[in-house]
Structure formats: C-alpha cells, structure tokens
Amino acid sequence: MDRRAAQNQGFSCENCAQPVTPLRNGSYRNHCPHCLWSKHVDEHPGDRASECRGLMRPERVDQPRGKGLAVVHRCTSCGFTRPNRIADDYGQGDSIDAVSALMARQTRHLR
Hints:
- This protein is α+β, with helices and mostly antiparallel strands.
- The chain has helices at 3-7, 96-110, and strands at 11-12, 19-20, 38-39, 55-62, 70-75, 81-85.
C-alpha cells in the first residue's frame, strides 16, 4: 500500500465517536466531518510524525489564498495550530451545519 493510500483510512472520531469514511475525491481526510475535530498526528502535512496525539479543537474558519475554506485547529494538549481544508466529498463531506456553527461562534467573538 502506498503512503497516500495508508493515510486515507476510515476511523472513529475520538471526540464524538462517529464513524468517518475515507475521502473518495482524491484527497485524504484529516478531521471529523461531523464535529470538525482533528487529532495531532502530523508535524508537517501527511508525515504522521507527531508524538503528541492530542485532540485538536476547531477554532475558526479561514480562507487561505486560492485554497477554499479551511478549519483552523488548535491542539488541546500542546497548543499546535494548523489549518485543514474543508472536505468536499460526495460520500461524506464536512457538515455544513458544523461549519456554519463554527463560523457563527467566530463572528460572535469578533463583536
């Protein structure tokens, strides 16, 4: 199995316990599409080299140049932050309700 295929595996979310399927759009999944939480497994995207393994809370939605929307996660164990693009997948895309709720929380904090 090549490295990319090894990264695109299904899992159970450690935050909400929902089953998460692999992406079918040519990319790989790095956060839960239900609650948007992630896990600190990478030091650099895709390397799986982090020893932390803490849960990463979705903090805000950002729009990096030319890359679509991204959820910015912060590790609850070590404070590491990383943006992760929102998954657009016909099989199990990110929950529009969860993304909208995160954006609404973010907007309330700006007031």
